[in-house]
């Protein structure tokens, strides 16, 4: 059955991996049971924020459109996993916290080879980079370190790890390749299957290189170029430039931005997100994760006083939030200035969104009843109560059939319907807003 996507956080020690992971996993939204059966110790569940199908105005159930009224389906959207708030859905996604990597990791430095092995099943990486320059390559405290170095050496550690594993066996690989008259693709697939590589990933890497010589004649530079092309395709990487709240961050960000394509970069301050969410839990502030605004008791009291001055007849209300001491008030003021006003948000939600974009993840909503989008059988009375209970994330170019296998397992499909009861072919490719609400009917057609 197709696996669920897995995104791994990598980086040197003290770059902020654990803080970033906390900021992605600890959501204030209501959380259901995890959809994943086994959660290993270094695995966690993050939440990807997406516009939910329930808020599409064109869907039956949301029509006729009423000006200013929320789409009626939104009020009945009750995800089994994650949450849906005002049409924004939090979809659970599995994350892997890889222990800190240091230069020389592929040779075993800092147990690096063991940690690299954890990456085998990752579909994408989030490289958490400390852009404050206050930690060196080993993660020790310093000042003025150039974090663009980390981007270079970490990528080469991953390449050298895969390369080392391949070269160890290269003699035997070559002999077998010649003996069974295998194609390059077949031989490499055998070698790279342990990294969860598909033949299309390996095929793309080989196509890009357009190599002329047969595999047994490859020199070491050619082998390295094959591994590099494979790694870049198998482990697409988002750079989470973390600690943007630090005064030294700007010049380091500017340097990295000159070296890396913009779709691979996200600026973030994980510690700011963790701090804000803690204050929300303690009733000090109002803050919606991902937004640029924080409201304190002082703000609410000021607003209430202004409102009362305009309409003196109404009684002035006081904010239910707790008052802040000077230290907290100053910290929030700094965070507003250094992070929220300058960058528009703490950035952590975009880190995950960007990784999902690199993978081309599409949200698909399997429903029992294509007329109501409910999960109950027609006529059971419950079919209208809850809509869009399920949402699965599938990779780019997945077909209706792929989704069917993921949702229904090996059960034979009679037919599949989408919005309006329209039948769809099993080889139709699903996309956002296209064949992404599906009802699978089991049995003989
Ligand atoms: N200024 C600042 N410090 C951060 C940020 N994120 C993490 N840190 C600090 O960096 C240190 C290492 O963080 P941690 O998450 O444990 O790093 P890990 O070793 O990569 O898991 C801790 O002292 C954090 O408080 C951030 O966004 N800004
Ligand atoms: Mg850690």
UniProtKB/TrEMBL annotation:
Gene3D superfamilies linked to this entry: 1.10.8.470, 3.10.20.30, P-loop containing nucleotide triphosphate hydrolases (3.40.50.300)
Start and end residues of each OBG-type G domain: 5-288
Keyword set, alphabetical order: GTP-binding, Nucleotide-binding
Chain intervals for the UniProt region annotation (Disordered): 290-321
Top-level taxon in the UniProt lineage: Eukaryota
Keyword match Ion transport: no
Family matches, as InterPro entries: Beta-grasp_dom_sf, G_OBG, GTP-bd, P-loop_NTPase, YGR210-like_G4
One Pfam family linked to the record: YGR210-like_G4
GO MF: ATP hydrolysis activity; GTP binding
Name under which the protein is recorded: OBG-type G domain-containing protein
SUPFAM superfamilies (alphabetical): P-loop containing nucleoside triphosphate hydrolases
Stored PANTHER family: OBG GTPASE FAMILY (PTHR23305), OBG-TYPE G DOMAIN-CONTAINING PROTEIN (PTHR23305:SF1)
Composition bias type Low complexity, residue spans: 305-318
GO cellular component labels: cytoplasm
């Amino acid at each position: 059955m197709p696996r669920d996507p897995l995104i791994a956080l990598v980086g040197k020690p003290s770059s902020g991996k654990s803080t970033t992971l906390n900021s992605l996993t600890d959501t204030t939204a209501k959380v259901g049971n995890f959809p994943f059966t086994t959660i290993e110790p270094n695995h966690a569940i993050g939440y990807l924020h997406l516009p939910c199908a329930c808020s599409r105005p064109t869907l039956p159930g949301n029509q006729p459109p009423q000006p200013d009224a929320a789409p009626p389906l939104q009020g009945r959207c009750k995800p089994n996993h994650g949450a849906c708030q005002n049409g924004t859905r939090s979809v659970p996604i599995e994350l892997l916290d890889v222990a800190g990597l240091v230069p020389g990791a592929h040779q075993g430095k800092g147990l690096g080879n063991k940690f690299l092995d954890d990456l085998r099943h990752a579909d994408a990486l989030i490289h958490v980079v400390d852009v404050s320059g206050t930690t060196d390559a080993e993660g020790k405290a310093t000042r003025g370190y150039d974090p663009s170095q980390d981007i270079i050496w970490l990528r080469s550690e991953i390449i050298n790890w895969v390369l080392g594993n391949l070269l160890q066996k290269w003699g035997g690989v070559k002999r077998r390749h010649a003996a069974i008259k295998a194609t390059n693709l077949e031989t490499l697939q055998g070698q790279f299957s342990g990294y969860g590589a598909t033949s299309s990933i390996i095929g793309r890497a080989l196509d890009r290189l357009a190599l002329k010589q047969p595999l047994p004649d490859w020199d070491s530079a050619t082998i390295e170029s094959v591994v590099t092309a494979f790694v870049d395709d198998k482990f697409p990487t988002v750079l989470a430039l973390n600690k943007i709240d630090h005064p030294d961050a700007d010049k380091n960000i500017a340097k990295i931005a000159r070296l890396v394509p913009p779709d691979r970069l996200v600026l973030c301050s994980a510690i700011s997100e963790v701090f804000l969410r803690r204050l929300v839990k303690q009733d000090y502030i109002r803050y919606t994760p991902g937004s640029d605004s924080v409201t304190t008791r002082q703000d609410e009291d000021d607003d209430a006083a202004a409102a009362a001055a305009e309409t003196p007849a109404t009684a002035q209300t006081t904010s239910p939030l707790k008052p802040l001491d000077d230290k907290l008030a100053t910290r929030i003021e700094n965070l507003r200035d250094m992070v929220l006003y300058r960058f528009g948000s703490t950035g952590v939600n975009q880190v995950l969104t960007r990784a999902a974009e690199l993978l081309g993840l599409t949200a698909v909503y399997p429903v029992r009843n294509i007329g109501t989008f409910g999960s109950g059988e027609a006529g059971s009375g419950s079919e209208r109560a809850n809509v869009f209970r399920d949402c699965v994330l599938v990779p780019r170019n997945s077909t209706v059939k792929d989704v069917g296998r993921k949702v229904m397992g090996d059960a034979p499909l009679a037919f599949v319907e989408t919005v309006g009861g329209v039948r769809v072919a099993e080889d139709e490719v699903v996309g956002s807003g296209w064949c992404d609400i599906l009802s699978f009917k089991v049995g003989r057609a």
